[in-house]
Amino acid sequence: MPGAREGVVNFFALKMLLGDRAKYVGMIIGLTFASLLITQQSSIFAGIMTRTYSFLTDVGLPEIWVVDPQVQYIEDIKPLQDTQVYRVRSIEGVQWAVRMYKGTLKARLPNGTFESCVVIGLDDETLIGGPPTMISGQLANLRQSDGVIVDIVGAQGKLARVLPNGRRVPLRVGDTLELNDHRAVVVGLCRVTRTFQANPVIYTTYSRATTFAPQERRLLSFVAAKARPGENLAALCERIQRITHLQAYTRDEFKKLTFNYVLKYTGMPINFLTAVALGFIVGITISGQTFYNFTLDNLRYFGTLKAMGATNRSLLWMILLQALVVGGIGYGLGVGAASVWGSLFSGRTQIAFQLPWQLLLINAGAVLLICLGAAAFSIRKVMKLEPAVVFRS
Asked: Which spans in the chain are helix H?
Protein backbone atom coordinates (compact mmCIF):
# COMPACT_ATOMS: atom_id res chain seq x y z
CA MET A 1 0.00 0.00 0.00
CA PRO A 2 1.96 3.03 -1.25
CA GLY A 3 -0.14 5.51 0.72
CA ALA A 4 0.44 3.71 4.01
CA ARG A 5 4.17 3.45 3.28
CA GLU A 6 4.39 7.18 2.61
CA GLY A 7 2.52 7.88 5.83
CA VAL A 8 4.99 5.76 7.80
CA VAL A 9 7.92 7.56 6.16
CA ASN A 10 6.43 10.98 7.04
CA PHE A 11 5.76 9.83 10.61
CA PHE A 12 9.35 8.68 11.14
CA ALA A 13 10.72 11.85 9.52
CA LEU A 14 8.75 14.13 11.86
CA LYS A 15 9.40 11.88 14.87
CA MET A 16 13.12 12.05 14.15
CA LEU A 17 12.97 15.84 13.71
CA LEU A 18 11.05 16.53 16.92
CA GLY A 19 13.12 14.02 18.88
CA ASP A 20 16.18 16.28 18.88
CA ARG A 21 14.64 19.41 20.40
CA ALA A 22 17.89 21.40 20.65
CA LYS A 23 18.75 21.15 16.95
CA TYR A 24 15.08 21.50 15.97
CA VAL A 25 14.81 24.80 17.83
CA GLY A 26 18.24 25.90 16.56
CA MET A 27 17.21 25.42 12.93
CA ILE A 28 13.96 27.30 13.47
CA ILE A 29 15.79 30.19 15.15
CA GLY A 30 18.27 30.41 12.26
CA LEU A 31 15.54 30.42 9.63
CA THR A 32 13.40 32.85 11.64
CA PHE A 33 16.27 35.30 11.86
CA ALA A 34 17.00 34.95 8.13
CA SER A 35 13.32 35.42 7.22
CA LEU A 36 13.03 38.39 9.59
CA LEU A 37 16.10 40.13 8.18
CA ILE A 38 15.16 39.52 4.55
CA THR A 39 11.56 40.67 5.08
CA GLN A 40 12.48 43.68 7.18
CA GLN A 41 15.17 45.06 4.88
CA SER A 42 13.15 44.37 1.73
CA SER A 43 10.09 46.08 3.23
CA ILE A 44 12.09 49.14 4.30
CA PHE A 45 13.59 49.36 0.83
CA ALA A 46 10.11 49.10 -0.73
CA GLY A 47 8.81 51.75 1.67
CA ILE A 48 11.63 54.16 0.84
CA MET A 49 11.13 53.63 -2.88
CA THR A 50 7.40 54.38 -2.64
CA ARG A 51 8.24 57.64 -0.88
CA THR A 52 10.22 58.77 -3.92
CA TYR A 53 6.92 59.22 -5.79
CA SER A 54 4.66 59.94 -2.80
CA PHE A 55 3.52 63.18 -4.46
CA LEU A 56 1.97 61.19 -7.32
CA THR A 57 0.38 58.77 -4.86
CA ASP A 58 -1.35 61.59 -2.99
CA VAL A 59 -2.57 63.39 -6.13
CA GLY A 60 -5.16 60.90 -7.31
CA LEU A 61 -7.31 62.69 -9.92
CA PRO A 62 -4.88 63.50 -12.76
CA GLU A 63 -4.20 60.60 -15.12
CA ILE A 64 -1.58 62.34 -17.26
CA TRP A 65 1.42 64.45 -16.26
CA VAL A 66 2.94 66.80 -18.83
CA VAL A 67 6.51 67.88 -18.14
CA ASP A 68 9.64 69.12 -19.86
CA PRO A 69 11.20 66.41 -22.09
CA GLN A 70 14.44 66.53 -20.05
CA VAL A 71 12.78 65.64 -16.72
CA GLN A 72 14.32 62.44 -15.34
CA TYR A 73 12.21 61.92 -12.20
CA ILE A 74 9.54 63.61 -10.12
CA GLU A 75 11.92 65.93 -8.24
CA ASP A 76 13.83 66.91 -11.38
CA ILE A 77 11.60 69.89 -12.06
CA LYS A 78 12.27 71.94 -15.17
CA PRO A 79 9.70 74.77 -15.25
CA LEU A 80 7.40 75.37 -18.20
CA GLN A 81 5.66 78.46 -19.54
CA ASP A 82 2.23 79.04 -18.01
CA THR A 83 0.66 79.08 -21.46
CA GLN A 84 1.40 75.36 -21.89
CA VAL A 85 -1.66 74.50 -19.82
CA TYR A 86 -3.91 76.08 -22.47
CA ARG A 87 -2.24 74.09 -25.23
CA VAL A 88 -2.85 70.86 -23.33
CA ARG A 89 -6.49 71.79 -22.66
CA SER A 90 -7.09 72.34 -26.37
CA ILE A 91 -5.98 68.84 -27.38
CA GLU A 92 -8.70 66.41 -28.39
CA GLY A 93 -9.32 63.77 -25.72
CA VAL A 94 -8.34 65.95 -22.73
CA GLN A 95 -11.23 66.46 -20.31
CA TRP A 96 -9.42 69.02 -18.20
CA ALA A 97 -5.88 70.24 -17.48
CA VAL A 98 -4.63 72.31 -14.55
CA ARG A 99 -1.44 74.03 -13.46
CA MET A 100 0.62 72.73 -10.55
CA TYR A 101 3.66 74.09 -8.78
CA LYS A 102 6.07 72.01 -6.74
CA GLY A 103 9.22 73.34 -5.17
CA THR A 104 11.36 73.45 -2.05
CA LEU A 105 11.19 76.71 -0.14
CA LYS A 106 12.63 77.90 3.16
CA ALA A 107 10.26 78.41 6.09
CA ARG A 108 11.45 80.75 8.81
CA LEU A 109 10.56 79.51 12.31
CA PRO A 110 9.82 81.78 15.32
CA ASN A 111 13.24 81.00 16.84
CA GLY A 112 14.96 82.35 13.71
CA THR A 113 15.99 79.02 12.21
CA PHE A 114 15.05 77.89 8.72
CA GLU A 115 13.45 74.63 7.58
CA SER A 116 13.16 73.36 4.01
CA CYS A 117 9.56 72.61 3.02
CA VAL A 118 7.93 71.10 -0.04
CA VAL A 119 5.43 73.68 -1.29
CA ILE A 120 2.69 72.48 -3.65
CA GLY A 121 0.64 75.03 -5.54
CA LEU A 122 -2.84 73.93 -6.64
CA ASP A 123 -4.96 75.33 -9.44
CA ASP A 124 -6.71 78.42 -8.03
CA GLU A 125 -10.12 77.60 -9.49
CA THR A 126 -10.45 73.85 -8.91
CA LEU A 127 -7.86 73.12 -6.18
CA ILE A 128 -7.27 69.77 -7.91
CA GLY A 129 -4.36 67.85 -6.38
CA GLY A 130 -5.07 68.72 -2.76
CA PRO A 131 -4.05 66.56 0.22
CA PRO A 132 -5.73 63.13 0.40
CA THR A 133 -6.87 63.50 4.03
CA MET A 134 -7.80 66.66 5.90
CA ILE A 135 -7.41 66.55 9.70
CA SER A 136 -8.66 70.05 10.47
CA GLY A 137 -9.98 72.81 8.25
CA GLN A 138 -11.15 72.44 4.67
CA LEU A 139 -9.39 72.51 1.32
CA ALA A 140 -11.51 75.50 0.29
CA ASN A 141 -9.88 77.50 3.09
CA LEU A 142 -6.88 77.93 0.80
CA ARG A 143 -8.84 80.72 -0.87
CA GLN A 144 -8.44 82.79 2.31
CA SER A 145 -5.76 85.45 2.29
CA ASP A 146 -2.25 83.96 2.64
CA GLY A 147 -3.78 80.54 3.43
CA VAL A 148 -1.69 77.37 3.54
CA ILE A 149 -2.38 73.80 4.64
CA VAL A 150 0.43 71.98 6.48
CA ASP A 151 0.88 68.24 6.87
CA ILE A 152 0.41 67.04 10.44
CA VAL A 153 3.83 65.37 10.73
CA GLY A 154 5.60 68.56 9.77
CA ALA A 155 3.34 70.66 12.03
CA GLN A 156 4.16 68.47 15.02
CA GLY A 157 7.81 67.99 14.13
CA LYS A 158 10.10 70.25 12.15
CA LEU A 159 7.71 73.24 12.03
CA ALA A 160 6.71 73.06 15.70
CA ARG A 161 7.53 76.03 17.92
CA VAL A 162 10.25 75.27 20.48
CA LEU A 163 9.80 76.91 23.88
CA PRO A 164 12.76 78.04 26.03
CA ASN A 165 12.31 74.93 28.22
CA GLY A 166 12.69 72.71 25.15
CA ARG A 167 9.02 71.71 24.86
CA ARG A 168 7.66 71.64 21.30
CA VAL A 169 4.32 73.31 20.53
CA PRO A 170 2.78 71.95 17.31
CA LEU A 171 1.70 74.31 14.56
CA ARG A 172 -2.06 74.90 14.74
CA VAL A 173 -4.76 76.41 12.55
CA GLY A 174 -4.47 80.20 12.83
CA ASP A 175 -0.70 80.23 13.37
CA THR A 176 1.54 82.08 10.93
CA LEU A 177 4.90 81.33 9.40
CA GLU A 178 7.20 82.89 6.85
CA LEU A 179 7.85 81.26 3.49
CA ASN A 180 10.69 82.88 1.61
CA ASP A 181 10.00 86.14 3.52
CA HIS A 182 6.26 86.01 2.76
CA ARG A 183 3.57 85.70 5.43
CA ALA A 184 1.54 82.49 5.40
CA VAL A 185 -1.45 81.64 7.62
CA VAL A 186 -2.20 78.03 8.51
CA VAL A 187 -5.84 77.38 7.56
CA GLY A 188 -5.78 73.57 7.80
CA LEU A 189 -3.83 70.48 8.72
CA CYS A 190 -3.66 67.37 6.54
CA ARG A 191 -2.15 63.92 6.39
CA VAL A 192 0.01 62.98 3.40
CA THR A 193 2.40 60.22 2.46
CA ARG A 194 5.81 61.04 3.87
CA THR A 195 8.32 62.35 1.38
CA PHE A 196 11.66 60.81 0.48
CA GLN A 197 13.54 63.67 2.18
CA ALA A 198 11.05 63.74 5.10
CA ASN A 199 10.47 67.48 4.58
CA PRO A 200 7.24 69.15 5.75
CA VAL A 201 4.63 69.49 2.99
CA ILE A 202 2.71 72.74 2.54
CA TYR A 203 -0.25 73.23 0.17
CA THR A 204 -1.42 76.55 -1.18
CA THR A 205 -2.86 77.98 -4.40
CA TYR A 206 -0.78 78.16 -7.56
CA SER A 207 -0.76 81.96 -7.71
CA ARG A 208 0.30 82.20 -4.06
CA ALA A 209 2.97 79.52 -4.45
CA THR A 210 4.52 81.37 -7.37
CA THR A 211 4.51 84.50 -5.21
CA PHE A 212 6.30 82.64 -2.43
CA ALA A 213 8.85 81.16 -4.85
CA PRO A 214 11.89 83.09 -6.08
CA GLN A 215 10.97 85.03 -9.18
CA GLU A 216 11.83 83.25 -12.40
CA ARG A 217 10.68 83.56 -15.99
CA ARG A 218 9.04 80.12 -15.78
CA LEU A 219 7.41 78.66 -12.68
CA LEU A 220 4.96 76.03 -13.95
CA SER A 221 6.18 72.63 -12.68
CA PHE A 222 3.56 70.30 -14.20
CA VAL A 223 0.44 70.27 -16.26
CA ALA A 224 -1.85 67.70 -14.66
CA ALA A 225 -4.58 66.43 -16.97
CA LYS A 226 -7.42 63.94 -17.13
CA ALA A 227 -8.57 62.11 -20.24
CA ARG A 228 -12.13 61.98 -21.45
CA PRO A 229 -14.01 58.78 -20.54
CA GLY A 230 -13.04 55.91 -22.82
CA GLU A 231 -9.93 57.68 -24.14
CA ASN A 232 -6.81 55.55 -24.58
CA LEU A 233 -4.18 57.06 -22.26
CA ALA A 234 -1.18 55.89 -24.29
CA ALA A 235 -2.62 57.36 -27.50
CA LEU A 236 -3.50 60.61 -25.73
CA CYS A 237 0.01 60.93 -24.28
CA GLU A 238 1.47 60.43 -27.77
CA ARG A 239 -0.90 63.07 -29.15
CA ILE A 240 0.09 65.58 -26.44
CA GLN A 241 3.77 64.98 -27.12
CA ARG A 242 3.33 65.41 -30.88
CA ILE A 243 1.42 68.69 -30.57
CA THR A 244 3.19 70.38 -27.64
CA HIS A 245 6.66 68.83 -28.01
CA LEU A 246 6.56 68.17 -24.27
CA GLN A 247 6.73 64.81 -22.50
CA ALA A 248 3.47 63.27 -21.30
CA TYR A 249 3.39 60.38 -18.83
CA THR A 250 0.57 58.42 -17.30
CA ARG A 251 0.68 58.31 -13.51
CA ASP A 252 2.12 54.80 -13.47
CA GLU A 253 4.72 55.70 -16.11
CA PHE A 254 5.83 58.73 -14.08
CA LYS A 255 6.14 56.55 -10.96
CA LYS A 256 8.16 53.98 -12.90
CA LEU A 257 10.42 56.71 -14.31
CA THR A 258 11.17 57.95 -10.79
CA PHE A 259 11.59 54.44 -9.39
CA ASN A 260 14.06 53.46 -12.12
CA TYR A 261 16.06 56.67 -11.71
CA VAL A 262 16.52 56.18 -7.97
CA LEU A 263 17.27 52.50 -8.53
CA LYS A 264 19.94 53.28 -11.11
CA TYR A 265 21.63 56.41 -9.79
CA THR A 266 21.60 56.03 -5.99
CA GLY A 267 23.38 53.61 -3.66
CA MET A 268 20.24 52.42 -1.90
CA PRO A 269 19.71 49.18 -3.84
CA ILE A 270 23.21 47.84 -3.20
CA ASN A 271 23.03 48.79 0.49
CA PHE A 272 19.76 46.97 1.08
CA LEU A 273 20.76 44.08 -1.17
CA THR A 274 23.82 43.60 1.02
CA ALA A 275 21.64 43.34 4.14
CA VAL A 276 19.29 40.88 2.40
CA ALA A 277 22.24 38.79 1.20
CA LEU A 278 23.61 38.79 4.75
CA GLY A 279 20.32 37.38 6.03
CA PHE A 280 20.41 34.71 3.33
CA ILE A 281 24.01 33.75 4.14
CA VAL A 282 23.35 33.66 7.87
CA GLY A 283 20.29 31.50 7.32
CA ILE A 284 21.95 28.96 5.07
CA THR A 285 25.09 28.83 7.25
CA ILE A 286 23.37 28.34 10.59
CA SER A 287 20.55 26.15 9.31
CA GLY A 288 22.82 24.16 6.98
CA GLN A 289 25.35 23.38 9.68
CA THR A 290 22.69 22.55 12.27
CA PHE A 291 20.75 20.38 9.84
CA TYR A 292 23.92 18.57 8.79
CA ASN A 293 24.79 17.84 12.42
CA PHE A 294 21.21 16.68 12.95
CA THR A 295 21.56 14.26 10.04
CA LEU A 296 24.88 12.91 11.33
CA ASP A 297 23.34 12.26 14.74
CA ASN A 298 20.50 10.32 13.10
CA LEU A 299 22.51 8.34 10.56
CA ARG A 300 21.84 5.14 12.50
CA TYR A 301 18.11 5.63 12.04
CA PHE A 302 18.50 6.29 8.33
CA GLY A 303 20.70 3.18 8.15
CA THR A 304 18.06 1.12 9.95
CA LEU A 305 15.37 2.26 7.54
CA LYS A 306 17.64 1.50 4.60
CA ALA A 307 18.36 -1.97 5.99
CA MET A 308 14.62 -2.51 6.32
CA GLY A 309 14.15 -1.78 2.62
CA ALA A 310 13.61 1.97 2.47
CA THR A 311 14.63 3.36 -0.91
CA ASN A 312 16.91 6.34 -1.48
CA ARG A 313 13.87 8.19 -2.76
CA SER A 314 12.06 7.68 0.56
CA LEU A 315 15.11 8.85 2.54
CA LEU A 316 15.45 11.87 0.25
CA TRP A 317 11.81 12.79 0.88
CA MET A 318 12.35 12.43 4.64
CA ILE A 319 15.19 14.94 4.57
CA LEU A 320 13.27 17.38 2.37
CA LEU A 321 10.18 17.09 4.57
CA GLN A 322 12.22 17.85 7.68
CA ALA A 323 13.83 20.85 6.00
CA LEU A 324 10.50 22.15 4.69
CA VAL A 325 8.83 21.82 8.10
CA VAL A 326 11.46 23.91 9.90
CA GLY A 327 11.54 26.28 6.92
CA GLY A 328 7.80 26.83 6.99
CA ILE A 329 7.81 27.52 10.72
CA GLY A 330 10.84 29.81 10.48
CA TYR A 331 9.32 31.68 7.52
CA GLY A 332 6.03 32.24 9.34
CA LEU A 333 7.71 33.44 12.53
CA GLY A 334 10.11 35.71 10.64
CA VAL A 335 7.43 37.34 8.49
CA GLY A 336 5.16 37.71 11.52
CA ALA A 337 7.91 39.35 13.58
CA ALA A 338 8.80 41.71 10.71
CA SER A 339 5.13 42.66 10.23
CA VAL A 340 4.69 43.41 13.93
CA TRP A 341 7.90 45.45 13.95
CA GLY A 342 6.76 47.40 10.91
CA SER A 343 3.30 48.13 12.33
CA LEU A 344 4.81 49.34 15.61
CA PHE A 345 7.46 51.66 14.21
CA SER A 346 6.49 52.76 10.70
CA GLY A 347 3.55 54.90 11.78
CA ARG A 348 5.28 56.54 14.74
CA THR A 349 8.76 57.14 13.35
CA GLN A 350 10.44 58.12 10.09
CA ILE A 351 10.92 54.43 9.24
CA ALA A 352 9.46 53.51 5.86
CA PHE A 353 7.85 50.06 5.75
CA GLN A 354 5.85 48.51 2.93
CA LEU A 355 5.12 44.76 2.74
CA PRO A 356 3.38 43.97 -0.56
CA TRP A 357 2.48 40.39 -1.44
CA GLN A 358 5.31 40.24 -3.97
CA LEU A 359 7.85 40.54 -1.15
CA LEU A 360 6.17 37.68 0.70
CA LEU A 361 6.66 35.48 -2.36
CA ILE A 362 10.28 36.58 -2.76
CA ASN A 363 10.96 35.88 0.91
CA ALA A 364 9.29 32.48 0.65
CA GLY A 365 11.50 31.66 -2.32
CA ALA A 366 14.62 32.74 -0.40
CA VAL A 367 13.69 30.59 2.61
CA LEU A 368 12.96 27.68 0.28
CA LEU A 369 16.43 28.02 -1.23
CA ILE A 370 17.91 28.10 2.26
CA CYS A 371 16.03 24.90 3.13
CA LEU A 372 17.13 23.18 -0.06
CA GLY A 373 20.70 24.30 0.55
CA ALA A 374 20.58 23.00 4.12
CA ALA A 375 19.14 19.69 2.91
CA ALA A 376 21.81 19.42 0.21
CA PHE A 377 24.50 19.14 2.90
CA SER A 378 22.80 16.04 4.26
CA ILE A 379 21.39 14.32 1.19
CA ARG A 380 24.74 13.15 -0.17
CA LYS A 381 25.71 11.68 3.19
CA VAL A 382 22.48 9.70 3.46
CA MET A 383 22.51 8.59 -0.18
CA LYS A 384 25.96 7.00 0.28
CA LEU A 385 25.03 5.45 3.62
CA GLU A 386 25.62 1.69 3.88
CA PRO A 387 23.02 -0.23 5.90
CA ALA A 388 25.86 -2.11 7.63
CA VAL A 389 26.64 1.06 9.61
CA VAL A 390 23.79 0.11 11.91
CA PHE A 391 25.60 -3.03 13.06
CA ARG A 392 28.94 -1.33 13.77
CA SER A 393 29.82 -0.86 17.38
From this structure: 2-19, 21-51, 54-58, 84-89, 152-156, 206-212, 233-244, 251-265, 268-297, 299-307, 312-345, 357-383
